[in-house]
Automatic annotation (TrEMBL):
InterPro entries from the UniProt entry: Bet_v_I/MLP, MLP-like, START-like_dom_sf
GO biological process: defense response
Annotated Bet v I/Major latex protein domain residues: 2-152
UniProt-recorded name of the protein: MLP-like protein 43
Gene coding for it: LOC101493377
Family in the record: Belongs to the MLP family.
């Protein structure tokens, strides 16, 4: 019985890697303005969107259904443009004991950029499916965000 798992995808982007990373590192509250699948975000606890003690509430659409969860920053690695988020509450707790979302943005050798999303999870029981819908959600949000960042 395997309850823990990891999913990962790497997506090319047209926006500079530093600009894409900066959106998540310093302007997370703006994601809802660039991604149609994110319906609402709000700072639920704390005074700063990017502090590890802060908790944000998210409302988003995966597989055509509205979901909610809370999120906090678990780790930031500025040098490697990598942020680890812990997701909990709402729909997450109904299916998973652990749910981490890891964003890493980097420049490729050909001058283009890329975004790597990784989900680390532990299901509450073996009847729960892996969070495959999340990978589609992250791919579509990345495309929306990249398109808006290129225009800006």
């Amino acid at each position: 019985m395997v309850l823990a798992g990891k999913l990962s995808t790497e997506l090319g982007i047209k926006a500079p890697a530093s600009k894409f990373y900066n959106l998540f590192a310093t302007q997370l509250h703006e994601v809802q303005n660039h991604c149609e699948r994110v319906h609402h975000t709000k700072l639920q606890q704390g005074e700063d969107w990017h502090h590890s003690d802060s908790v944000k509430h998210w409302k988003y659409v995966i597989d055509g259904k509205v979901h909610t969860c809370n999120e906090s920053v678990e780790e930031v690695d500025e040098q490697n443009k990598k942020i680890t988020y812990k997701l909990f509450g709402g729909d997450i707790d109904e299916h998973y004991k652990v749910f981490k979302l890891i964003l890493q943005v980097f420049d490729k050798s050909d001058g283009s950029g890329a975004v790597k999303w990784t989900i680390e999870y532990e299901k509450i029981n073996e009847d729960i499916y892996p969070p495959n819908g999340w990978m589609d959600y992250l791919s579509k949000c990345t495309r929306d965000l990249d398109g808006n960042l290129v225009k800006a």
